[in-house]
Amino acid sequence: MKSTIVSFSRLPGVVVSVGVVLAVALQASAGVYDPPQPTDISGTTASGLQWSAVATGTALPIRTSATSSFNGQPGAVAYFNTLTGQLQVNPRGYNLNAVIITYTTGTVNVSGTTPGPFTYATGTGANAYSPTTGTPKTFPAKDPTTAGLAPITYPSRVSLTVGPPLSANLTNTGDLGNIASTGTSGYWNMGWSYPLDLVNSGSVSAMVISNFKTIGQNSNANANILGYGLGFATFQYGITGVTGNQVGAVIPVSVPEPSICAMALAGLAGGGYTLFRRRRAR
Questions:
Q1: Model pLDDT, residue 167
Q2: CA-to-CA distance for 189 and 96, rounded, in angstroms?
Q3: Crossing angle of helices 18-31/260-281, nearest 10°?
Q4: Phi and psi for 125 in degrees, rounded to 5?
Q5: 259 — pLDDT class (breaks 50, 70, 90)
Q6: Which residues contact 191 (CB under 8 A, 6 or more apart)?
Q7: Which of 35, 33, 53 is CA-nearest to residue 43?
C-alpha cells in the first residue's frame, strides 16, 4: 500500500508521513491509557465528598486485616468518561488478580442475559484478550504460555480474573496500548483503557454513575461511603496477597475525545516543527 506524503511549505525540507501519524492517532483512539487530569474531575458524591478527593483512592482504601501493610492504603479506582463512555482502570501499581465492572439498574447478580451498555466488537470470552501488538481489544494481552477461565463479556459486566490457579497471567511484552502488566508477576498492575466502543455510544447519555455496582459486597466498609447505596458507584477488584475482595470507586470524568483528524493534524504540526528545529540547530 502506498504511503501518502505531505510537505509543509513553511517548513523547508520537512516531509511528514500522514500514514504514520494517522496510525498513532488511531492507536490512541483505540484505548491507550490516559488518566484524567485533576481539572477533568469535579463535583461531589451523594455523601458530599469531592470526586477529586475520591480519585486519590483514600476515600475507599484497601480493606483487609489490621496486621496487613496494605490495610488503609489508597485503593484502586476506575474512571468513567461521561462524554465519551470511555472506561479506564488505575491499579495504583498493586498486583490485581481481578477487575469486575458491572453496570445494572438492579441489585441482584447479573448474567449473560441481563441488559447493559457493554458491547464487544472485537470478540467475546477468550477472544476479548488483546494481541501483544496491533489493535487492542477489551482486555490486556495474556501470557500465551498460560491458560485459564475466559474473561466475562456480558452486556452488563466486563470482568477479568488474572493468575493461577484459575486464570491466565498477563504478559509484560507488547505494544503500550495492549499490555497492563510490568515486571515478572503476570498480574494486572498498569493502567488500562478499555476500547472506546466498549460502551454503546447510544447508551452513554443515559448512564448514571450510581448504576456501576459491586454485587454481593454489602458488608465491605467501602460499600456506601459515596452515599448512593450499598455497592453503588463502585467496582470490585482483588489484590494478590491481600485477603478479601476490594471495593473501589468509579469516578465520573468529563474529557472530550479529540477527533482522529485533529490528532493527526496536531501530530503533523508537532512532528514537523520538531524536525524543523533540529535542522535549524545543525
A1: 97
A2: 6
A3: 130
A4: 55, -135
A5: very low
A6: 33, 35, 88, 89, 90, 91, 180
A7: 53
Q: CA 15, 18, 24, 28 torsion: positive or negative?
A: positive
Task: List Cα–Cα distances, 245 to 7, 81, 248, in angstroms.
Answer: 56, 25, 10
> What pTM was estimated for this model as a whole?
0.83
H-type helices in the chain, by residue range? 18-31, 51-54, 260-281
Q: Which of 86, 101, 91, 90 is nearest to 30 (CA)?
A: 86
* 264 backbone dihedrals φ, ψ, rounded to 5°: -65, -45
pLDDT digits (tens, 9 = 90+) for 159-198: 999 999 999 999 999 999 999 999 999 999 999 999 999 9
* C-alpha cell at position 68: 496487613
Nearest to 204 by CA among 274, 256, 148, 267: 256
Q: Name which of 75, 85, 92, 87 is nearest 34 in CA terms.
A: 87
Q: Are 239 and 70 in contact (CB under 8 A)?
A: yes
- List all residues 6 or more positions away from 145 whose beta carbon is below 8 Å from its beta carbon: none
Is the preceding peptide bond at 165 cis, omega within 30 degrees of 0? Answer: yes
Q: Which residues pair with 234 in a beta bridge?
A: 249
Residue from 212, 176, 181 nearest 87 by CA: 212
Q: How far is CA 127 from CA 73, 82, 122, in A?
A: 34, 27, 8
